[in-house]
Write a structure and sequence with these properties.
By secondary structure, the chain is an alpha+beta fold. Helix content is 29%, strand content 32%. The structure holds the ligand Nc1nc2c(c(=O)[nH]1)N=C([C@H](O)[C@@H](O)CO)CN2. InterPro entries: Dihydroneopterin_aldolase (IPR006156), FolB_dom (IPR006157), GTP-CH-I_C/QueF (IPR043133).
């Protein structure tokens, strides 16, 4: 199976468990992988047959910024649900990193895999 992916989609948003996090914006970095069959898009050379990564990036950013969220697990789950609902894919992998959350680590995060049905 083929994959359309987006690496390090940067989203500034209100994210975090603690009170001090609820009045500031922090950066999340998302890696997205959508399993799909790219052959129709390639054969037709037609964006309408493809999973448009520009549209995906916009929809995911809007979803994450819509309201404050506490856990990055919640971000990952909501993004996976959106991708499965709105795009022609049967399996997605969503990684959400929160760089700077642990000063002694380069980054921290979660990675989930979800399938349709
Ligand atoms: N598994 C998780 N652990 C933690 C999260 C989280 O979203 N998932 N969040 C925090 C705080 O918001 C932290 O990022 C503040 O620096 C702590 N642990």
């Amino acid at each position: 199976m083929d994959t359309v992916f987006i690496k390090k989609l940067c989203i500034d948003t209100v994210i975090g468990v603690y009170e001090w996090e609820k009045s500031i914006q922090q950066r999340l970095e998302l890696d997205l992988e959508l399993q799909c069959d790219t052959r129709q898009a390639a054969a037709s050379d037609d964006i309408r047959q493809a999973l448009d990564y520009s549209v995906i990036a916009t929809e995911v950013t809007e979803l994450v910024q819509r309201e404050p969220i506490e856990l990055i697990e919640t971000v990952a789950e909501r993004v996976a649900a959106l991708l499965l609902q709105n795009f022609k894919t049967c399996r997605v992998q969503v990684s959400v990193s929160k760089p700077g959350a642990v000063p002694t680590a380069e980054t921290v995060g979660v990675r989930i895999v979800r399938e349709a049905g």
